[in-house]
C-alpha cells in the first residue's frame, strides 16, 4: 500500500507535478495568442471562446509557437535548470550551456513543446478536477448541492447515483494524481534524451577537458623541473658546505652564493607559474621562463663537476620555444644526476645542426644505485613530453656504464 501512495504523492511525484504546472504556466502566453487566432472561427465575438473545441484549437495553435521560440540557444539552459531541480534525474545527464548545434536546438524545441503541452493539460486538470471531485463527494451530505445543476447532472434521474459520489470523487482525484505521476515519469525519462549532451556537445567537452589537462600537465612539468632542480642543487651545495665548514671557508662562501642565486631564480620562476594558476587560464606562454642563454648560470650553480660543450655555433639564435624546452631538459638531466650519481662528473653537450638541436647529458653510473623515491619518475617522462611537443625525440638509458640522456629538438618546433 505504501509503494503506490509514494509513487502518486511522494516527494519526487510532487516535484514532478510542480514541474508540469510550471509547464502549464509557460504555455499560457502561447495559448492566449492562440485564442486570438481561433476566436474568429469559434462563432463568438469574445477573446476567450467557451467551447471545448475552441479551447483545444487554441491549444493546438500554441504548441507550434512554443516550439519555434524554443529554438533560441538560451532555451536549453533554462529548461535544464528546471528539469535538474524538479524531474529527479541525475544532474550529470544534462548538457551544460546554450544549444550550439542544429540538433541540440531541435531537441530542446521538442522538449519544451512536450513540457508545455503535457503541463498545460495537467495544470488545467489540476485546477478543474479537484473542486469538481470534492463537490461530487459532498452530494450525499448537502441538499443544496443535490438541487443544483451538479446534482441534476450527476443523478441522471437515478437518485441512488448521488450516493456513488464519494467513491467517484476519490477515483477522480486518484486518476488525476496517476495522470500527473505518469506525465512526470515520461518527462523524466525523456529529459536526458532531449536535454542531454549531443555528440557535438560531448566532442566540445572532451576537447575542453583535453586542453585543461594539457595546461595542468604543462604547469606540473614547470613546477617539477624548476623547483625539483633547485631543491636538489641547494641540498647538494648545503651538504658540501657543511662537510668543509671548518677547513675551506672560500668554498663555503661560494656554496652559499650558489644557494642564494638558485633560490632567487627559482622564486621568480615559481611566481610566474603560480600567477598562471591564480588566473586559471593559459595565455599561450609562461612569462619569465629561462632559455639556453641562462645555461651557464645553471651549470655554475650545479657545481664544479659539470662541464659544458657547445658545438655547431652560437645557440643564442635558437628559436625561443626550442631554447626554453632545451633549458628545462638540461635542468632535469642535472637534477637526475645530482639525485642518483651525486659527486660524479657530468658532461653536457649542446650541438646545433641546420635543422635540429641535439642535447646530450652523460654521467657514470654509481657503484651502488640509490633507493627509488616514492612517486618518482615524472622528470624523465616530462623530458619526453617536452621533446614530443616540439616534434622531437628523447631517450634516457644506461650505455656501457654511463647514464645517457639524449634529446633532439627540431629548430622549427611549435610554440608550446
Automatic annotation (TrEMBL):
Source organism per UniProt: Streptomyces lavendulocolor
Key words of the record: ATP-binding, Kinase, Membrane, Nucleotide-binding, Phosphoprotein, Transferase, Transmembrane, Transmembrane helix, Two-component regulatory system
One term of GO molecular function: kinase activity
Name of the protein described by the UniProt record: histidine kinase
InterPro entries per the UniProt record, alphabetical: HATPase_C_sf, HATPase_dom, Sensor_HK_TwoCompSys, Sig_transdc_His_kin_sub3_dim/P
Residues passing through the membrane, by range: 20-42, 54-75, 111-140, 160-188
EC number: 2.7.13.3
Upper taxonomic lineage: Bacteria, Bacillati, Actinomycetota, Actinomycetes, Kitasatosporales
Coiled-coil intervals, chain numbering: none
Residue ranges annotated for the Histidine kinase/HSP90-like ATPase domain, each copy included: 324-398
Signal peptide from the UniProt entry: none
Pfam family of the protein (one): HATPase_c
Domain (Signal transduction histidine kinase subgroup 3 dimerisation and phosphoacceptor) ranges: 216-281
Enzymatic reactions: ATP + protein L-histidine = ADP + protein N-phospho-L-histidine
